[in-house]
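Dear colleague,

Thank you for sharing your sequence with our group. We've completed the structure prediction you requested, and as agreed, I am returning the results in plain text so they can be pasted directly into your records. Please verify that the sequence below matches your submission; if there's any discrepancy, let me know and we will rerun it promptly.
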Amino acid sequence: MGRRQCWCRVTVRGPDGAVLGGFTLEGPGDPDLAAVDDLARVALQAARLGGRITLREVSPAMRAMLDLAGFGVEMERQAEPAEESPVVVEREEEAHPDDPAG
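Please find the predicted structure tokens below.
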């Protein structure tokens, strides 16, 4: 088994944006599609409750996996010393005519 690497830090937010909890997604080596699946499951559960997830400290390998999977997720930008607190950038999911209604 290899050394565990931090792939990203996940924050779960409620409908009002309040932080409900969080965790670090990590594992040996680089992330794979199973890691993206784990994030998707947490994001789906949060969305069902009216909330969302945000990511920070996303590793380059995890960012590549998220892009490969087309996973739209909010990522918190780390604040520079002269800046204010991190900004959450929202990404809208594209709707396609053939997608089943959610």
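Summary note from our side: The beta strands are 4-13, 19-28, 52-56, 74-76, 88-89.

Kind regards,
the structure core
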